[in-house]
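Continuing the batch. This is chain 6 of the set; chains 1 through 5 are on the previous pages. Same settings as before, nothing changed between runs. Recording input and output for traceability.
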Amino acid sequence: MSTATEVRAALSEDELSQVDALWRAANYLSAGQIYLLDNPLLREPLRPEHIKPRLLGHWGTSPGLNFVYAHLNRLIRRHDLDMMFVTGPGHGGPALLANTWLEGSYPEVAPEAGQDADGMRVLFRQFSFPGGVPSHVAPQVPGSIHEGGELGYSLAHAYGAAFDNPDLIVACVIGDGEAETGPLATSWHANKFLDPVHDGAVLPILHLNGYKIANPTVLSRIPGAELDELLRGYGYAPHYVTGSDPALMHQAMAATLDDVHARIRRIQDEARGGSRERPRWPVLVLRSPKGWTGPSTVDGKPVEGTWRSHQVPLPNVRGNPEHLRALEAWLRSYRPEELFDRDGGPKPEVTALVPRGERRMGANPHANGGLLLRPLPLPDFAAHAVVVPEPGASSAEPTRALGRYLKELFANDAGRRDFRLFGPDETASNRLDAVYDVTAKAWQAEVEPADEHLATDGRVVEVLSEHLCQGWLEGYLLTGRHGLFSCYEAFVHIVDSMVNQHIKWLRTARGIPWRRPVASLNYLLTSHVWRQDHNGFSHQDPGFIDHVANKSAEVVRVYLPPDTNTLLSVAEHCLRSRDYVNVIVAGKNETPNWLGPEQAALHCARGAGIWEWASTFPEREPDVVLACAGDAPTMEVLAAAKLLREHLPRLAVRVVNVVDLMRLQPDTEHPHGMTGWEFDALFTPDRPVIFAYHGYPWLIHRLAYRRTNHAEFHVRGYKEHGTTTTPFDMLVLNDMDRFQLVIDVIDRVPGLARTAAPVRQAMTEARERHHRWISEHGEDLPEVRDWTWS
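Output for chain 6:
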């Protein structure tokens, strides 16, 4: 254990002076960003007009982040390390902007904020200012892959970045407030999945500064021995740096980082030399005061080392002369005249320990992953397609075919290097298990005889935490690789907030010229609502689509392939795409095959189209449109179309299938949206549209509400009526079964209610017969269970 009172002199006098100067400069710049509108170098006495009218930002975490960054710079220089910096504390924006400005990486991407007095003024003025940059670490900050606006995801991102990057060390600062979140607590277990042979290293740095916004943090208040036991129980080797005296803390931090680096290299050397013992990776615990080096008291109340330093320690600088004087004294305590030259740039002794070129953490290409992104050679999906001699004449399990496609992907060199499959213990359940013929599940813990498909170098990454799977995948993608997240549809909601942040990151990054495109985040949602009849109500929820559909149109895409070949076509498209969040919803159970591979590719390219082979009187204007989106709705619409052929043979029925849900929006709202002419040509401007939809029916109304014939749209979907029952009964409970769809046609097409009354009565009786049958037999009606289109 290394503490500030038990240190060895790891730094020479020159190094001590240099690291302290770098730290002081970063602290000065961090405070300046929060407060100063002008007079950035304090070349004149501070006046109210030099202060921003709105004081926004977070000081409390910044000095600790600056301290870590300065010392990591020294470590990089000393050992020529390839190192990234992931910032967990939510609003650490001032610190990361300060450090990237000092190292020159920020001025390279924002030339207006150059390393001089005018550039420093821009750096200060833009922070938390209209038209400027956010107060948290955002895509505008070079070296970042982690949006700091929400807590809990830093460590998962760090491990995702380290996968398949054997020479990379990812330093991840974890705030002690962040450490209280569920995703972060789970992320400690990621060390059981990191392969010291083929992966890089993650250095978690738990920053215990004691407080959140207004409360103490749990990990800072438990006894030190208990914290030590906790971290050792997670499988780590803890190292400690504790104190507040800068000189002692610098020596302690330098010595500890030297020890930590030596341990990382020893672990990797031993593993790469043949050792298979699971390592205890180091974790560094830094205990320093919150708001370190800031005002000790304000208005007679303690600030440094308390929750009062969390945001703006001096809140009324413009209106309170005493606060103004205190701010000036605080800023001058860093001795800016020693840190910056006459032009306002950092002096050589300040940047003496800063790495050069891509070794700077703000310029590390892994943190701008599109720079490193290699195309993923994808198999031809047609080679894995099922044969479809006639629509509906055969059936297949869509995700099982996708598993065979992914197996071929994993078998090529790029798949073994740049692609991973993530999921919460559901790869086999979701019938993707063909991949285990060529790879295994990543696993570093003990293996017992009954275990299957576990290996230290496996490329399938499973843990029963959707948060951790999502975080790993995000870190993997943002550092230039490719992946797929497979999940039960109902439980992907667990990452609702995480996907929010990723979508916001991608949307913002799209507007930043130096950010290069990265591979899309691809979801495969299966075991979906309509085939969770056996697991019951708790497993029945298609609402993730609604959640994603609310987000930025530039980024989100939603696909509902109706059969095996359309799933393969959609998957190939999504794996090839960049800078999107793609949601694919597809079943794993036996599903009729409707389209051959060429037809599937064409249909998916259109996104929505008429299925003439299922329609009647295609040369006529239809009397009714039967529309569908999703595999179960497609089957019910086709069954309803067949019933209408039998019972109302003179009715002109058009069947429309929608694969790309965003096609329903206007082209003015979404890049995939249809023009008004296209929409009317497909759905008609005035005929009834009976729409069977996979999810909650009101989403279709939202997407189409501005269309000419929206008043004629009648949507069936999931209405929160579920239980443990038969597959068809799920459809009946939610009024999306074939018999109800025929009833809807009769009720909506003018004149049919009178002439087709006997047919309507027959459909009602069929639903009643269904209820009696399942109550007696526990399975669906033979006419439903054995139904085929042909």
